[in-house]
Specification:
about 210 residues; alpha/beta; Nucleotidyltransferase, domain 5; 4-stranded mixed beta sheet; two-stranded parallel ribbon; about 45% helix; globular
Length: about 210
């Protein structure tokens, strides 16, 4: 799972200037081909780009974005995502002056609930999140997530620099974000057929 945007400034001018937050779940049926997409493209880049610790959508040129997204689109996976407008009353009223982490938790639960239902996942669900929590905060997040969904889960918080699949999720999030922020489907059109669920928070699936 990875995101584009942030949850700061709910109800303020900041939310009007950058209203969208996107959270993406890349449901990998087979993780190896996805990892190969990142590694293969990285090996063909110029030396100055290969020296970077990781590949990121916002730092890549158009050909690189296209190559990675096309490669991901050919792998055996599904994409679920949730988006929200931070300036809508349904968000600004209940989450005003609330720790953004609480809002993130609710969005994350909504997305994972969709993934489990839409992809008909059985047994223990493995969830990999770009590392951003530590210590007690991480433990509390994991416990709350598993309890609220009523599903056995194995949650890993990994450094995206060492996890190609998280880098792939970053490119997907970037492509989806451009669609919502700028009405630009240039990159989203490459992965559109892989999207099995997309919905607004807290609105219903569209």
């Amino acid at each position: 799972m990875d995101e584009s945007g942030n949850l700061g400034g709910i109800g303020s001018r900041i939310s009007e200037e950058d209203p969208y937050f996107i959270l993406v779940a890349l449901v990998a049926r087979d993780e190896i081909p996805i990892n190969r997409c990142i590694k293969k493209v990285r090996q063909t880049l110029k030396k100055k780009y290969r020296a970077r610790s990781e590949l990121k959508f916002k730092e890549s040129d158009v050909p690189t974005k296209r190559r990675i997204l096309k490669c991901i689109a050919e792998t055996n996976n599904d994409i679920n995502y949730v988006f929200l407008r931070k300036d809508q009353p349904a968000i600004s009223i209940p989450y005003l002056d609330v720790d953004p982490q609480m809002l993130y938790n609710d969005i994350c639960m909504a997305l994972l609930r969709s993934v489990i239902h839409e992809c008909d996942l059985k047994g223990t669900v493995d969830v990999v999140i770009d590392r951003f929590l530590y210590g007690e905060a991480r433990a509390e997040f994991n416990i709350r997530l598993a309890k609220s969904l009523g599903t056995q889960m194995h949650i890993s918080h990994l450094d995206s620099r060492r996890c190609p699949s998280l880098q792939a999720a970053d490119f997907i999030a970037g492509a989806i974000a451009r669609r919502h922020r700028y009405r630009d489907d240039t990159f989203f059109s490459i992965i559109r057929h892989k999207v099995t669920a997309a919905f607004g928070f807290p609105e219903e699936i569209w």
